[in-house]
Amino acid sequence: MSVPVFKSIFPFTQEILAEYPLMNDAAMEQCIHNASAAYKSWKKNGYSERAKVLKNVATILRRDQEILATLITNEMGKIISEARGEVEKCAMTADYYAEHAEFFLKDENLESNYTKSFVTYQPIGVVLGIMPWNFPFWQVFRYAAPTLMAGNTTLLKHAPNTCGCSLALEKIFMEAGAPKGVFTSLIIDTPDVEKILASDLVQAATLTGSERAGSSVASIAGSQIKKTVMELGGSDALIVLPDADMKNAVAVALNSRMLNAGQSCIAAKRFIILKDALQEFMKEFMAQLKNLKQGDPFDKSVTTGPLARLDLVAKLDKQLKDSVKMGAKLEWGGEIEGCNFKPALLMNVKKGMPAFDEETFGPLATVIIAKSETEAIQLANDSVYGLSGSIWTNDIEKGIALAKQMETGAVYLNTLVKSDPHLPFGGIKKSGYGRELGRHGILEFVNAKTIAVVN
Questions:
Q1: 171 Cβ partners below 8 Å, 6+ apart?
Q2: Rounded to 5 degrees, what are φ and ψ at 371?
Q3: What pLDDT does 433 receive?
Q4: Which residues of the chain have pLDDT under 50?
Q5: Is the whole-model pTM more than 0.70?
Q6: 7, 19 in Cβ contact below 8 A?
Q7: Where would I find the beta strands (DSSP E) of 61-138?
Q8: For 105-114, which contacts have Cβ atoms below 8 Å and span 24 or more sequence positions?
Q9: Would you call 31 a catalytic residue per the annotation?
Q10: Is 102 a known active-site residue?
Q11: Which of 265, 358, 359, 436 is catalytic?
């Protein structure tokens, strides 16, 4: 009987690059035990010892940036310049937590009726990370850097199409001096997640992925009474007011929607344009949209690579066509060749259409017209998702007031929405719960232990 395998396929040509045999139950159990055993010693290491490993990781990432970026592009298709940037961002985040974890987790003294009372922050054990393919290094580092610096160990279940990236990450941590079991890559299928969460040796899980995946994993973890963090889908609104710097607003809007070929949870997916700003916005947007070039992600002149898989192309195409049938107007793009989906623009998008209601994971921009600022906020909030959003206006006080009304985990004014190691990241509603990054991210998988003393 043949062993099941995951295949690494270059999206642009559909060439099979590698095959990865799936682990059997015995191998998976051994990995769980190794992670648990490693935790017993890793948690006793001081912050300086753990920081040394993370600093070494950052050095290796920068040393091997071109090799790792090539691997990312081969497995999921993003343009090579974006892949290089992803590797550098991971190195920056490893450095950030190596330098700040001890401060973030220092004992916190509390006023009380006791002689002394404080909270001390301690690791909890083995954390399972279930990560997606769209940012195959960055998504991992967002949780792994703080989780490991806190003293936990981790098991990584990566997406089937990015097994090469998953194994490369494990190799990097081992070369950096992490003991065996501190960071372990599991080549396993989705049903095995339940087996891992059922183990008493695993204490928590974090997932970045679809609403459906999040619901399933959260349910399983909940039945085992285990902590979870969920970073799920988004349908971010980008609101443009008439007084905005229109050229800059359009450039950032286009970049936000087309970055990583539109395969980003925090991409601007719904452009909500005030009626008085529409003409200027559209003139500039169409001019910039037509300058995009799609093709081989290793070609330096290409601005937009292919989607990662053929099934993703088919889903996006259906969302576009169903929206058109319901009254939306396709102004530009949408042609398909293999995994290439030509950057597209939909006008007259309204509530009830897939392009409004659903997460569109690809290079599809949608324009929604608002008659007033009040209506713009109502449209932005009229979504099951609540990840992030942006507002464009030269009136900063007004922008902040509007930002406070948006039902999201973050709002950015006059700039690109992006995850940043300095700032907490996460959503509300069906975009998930919990936070990654910043101090909030490292507090997710620690025990906030109260100690009270009478003397």
A1: none
A2: -80, -20
A3: 98
A4: none
A5: yes
A6: yes
A7: 108-109, 116-123, 126-130
A8: 105/150, 105/442, 105/443, 105/446, 110/450, 112/452, 114/452, 114/453, 114/454
A9: no
A10: no
A11: 265
Alpha helices in 116-157 (DSSP H): 138-149
Give dist(CA 413, CA 406) in Å, integer.
Answer: 12
Q: What is the pLDDT of residue 3?
A: 84
State the pLDDT at residue 2.
77
**Amino acid of residue 18:** A
Point out the catalytic residue in the list 75, 82, 231, 373: 231
Alpha-carbon torsion, ordered 53, 56, 58, 59, to 10 deg: 180
Q: Using CA of residue 413, residue 417, residue 421, residue 427, what is the dihedral sign?
A: positive
- Domain, as residue range, for 352: 236-422
Model pLDDT, residue 1: 64
On whether both 59 and 195 belong to a single domain, the answer is yes
User: What is the total count of domains within the chain?
Assistant: 2
Of 303, 297, 356, 298, which is closest to residue 326 (Cα–Cα)?
356
Contacts of 244 (CB under 8 A, 6+ apart): 277, 392, 393, 394, 414
Q: Clarify whether residues 400 and 438 are in a common domain.
A: no
Cβ atoms of 343 and 324 closer than 8 Å: no
